[in-house]
Amino acid sequence: MAFPEPRPQAPELPQKLLKTLDCGQGAVRAVRFNGGRPPLYIPSPAPPEAGGPVTPACCSPVDGNYCLTCGSDKTLKLWNPLRGTLLRTYSGHGYEVLDAASSIDNSSLCSGGGDKTVVLWDVASGQVVRKFRGHAGKVNTVQFNEEATVILSGSIDSSIRCWDCRSRKPEPVQKLEEARDGISSVKVSDHEILAGSVDGRVRRYDLRMGQLFSDYIGSPITCTCFSRDGQCTLVSSLDSTLRLLDKDTGELLGEYTGHKNQQYKLDCCLNERDTHVISCSENGKVFFWDLVEGALVLALPVGSSVVQSLAYHPTEPCLLTAMGGSIQCWREEKEGGAG
User: Is 10 exposed, middle or buried (0-12, 13-18, 19+ CB in 10 A)?
Assistant: First the structure.
């Protein structure tokens, strides 16, 4: 007789606080892990000059070793969160920085902020490579495409703009202006753009098919993301509800409630194995739900204020949270794992 397959081990959730970092950049508006998908090629860094700064993030072939923090003091900072070390500060925005992303090869960063600009940075030198202007309002969200040749930015001016990193032309190569209110969230896959808007709609642009798909949620959307298997989209909105949708049909697969999100643009995501839905909350906690059952399995207390932002490691049970001027690094309870 055949023995039944062993049940897969229950995923560990990151609920052990490893480190708290005071970022020293005013309020932390967003925290982001570097990378997100396995890098294709990492150039070897040149040896640092004697007494000079160590060249950071083009250093590691492993995703998620570094993180970015966006500050209300106009700076962007690069950290090793597990060691608690600041690697570099990037200065060049004229107002608070609201979002940032890194290229897959870790050589470039992009950021957007309250000064209406999108900035392309060289990681190693800390210098501004390009500054893209054209949005009529603050830039809420930025993403690279997979090759890091294009930056996509979403603004409260209701538009998504696509900027060619290699061109010297100041105009965007494309504008997406279907939204009727501000863009709160943009995510990118190899052939799709997923956008959430304050107008209550989540829009998916299929670049291969040249088609736009739109799903009406009703409440202003604060964050959208793809599941890691690419089959679903997760949407959070100001009715304190997260919704899991079938990406292709728009069918509602699950709803997740219990947290508080009525006022602020807060992050949500799925964990590294697509087993749990995770969200910030305005009551000082991070909430974890079982994706399939919809049950709340953990309300992780972070502090007494709003959990403004979060980021989940691409391959391991490791969570970063942002509250006030600090970030917190959380791991699973058991010993082991990369550090």
Answer: exposed
pLDDT for position 84: 93
CA–CA separation, 322 and 238 (whole Å): 19
Q: What is the pLDDT of residue 60?
A: 38
Residue with tokens 């508080």: 260
Using an 8 Å Cβ cutoff, are 221 and 240 in contact? no
DSSP string computed for 17-44: EEEEEE-SSSSEEEEEES-SS--S--PP
> Which of 336, 338, 318 lies closest to 15, judged by CA?
318
Instruction: Name the pTM for this structure.
Output: 0.88
Amino acid at 220: P
Are 90 and 122 within 8 A, CB to CB? no
pLDDT of residue 35: 75
What are the residue ranges in the chain where pLDDT is below 50? 6-7, 37-62, 336-339
| Cα separation, 42 vs 47, whole angstroms | 15
Q: What is the pLDDT of residue 50?
A: 36
Number of DSSP helices (H) and strands (E) in the chain, helices first? 0, 28
User: What is the H or E stretch that residue 223 is in?
Assistant: strand 221-226
In whole angstroms, give the CA distance from residue 286 to residue 307: 7
Whose tokens are 């049909």? That residue is 249
pLDDT of residue 337: 45
pLDDT number for residue 64? 83
Sign of the Cα torsion 35, 132, 31, 192 reads negative
Long-range CB pairs of 224-231 (<8 Å, 24+ gap) are 224/185, 224/186, 224/187, 224/194, 224/195, 224/196, 225/185, 225/187, 225/194, 225/268, 225/269, 225/270, 226/187, 226/189, 226/192, 226/194, 227/270, 227/274, 228/270, 228/272, 228/273, 228/274, 229/274, 230/189
Cα radius of gyration rounded to whole Å, the chain: 19
Cα(279)–Cα(236) distance, integer angstroms: 8
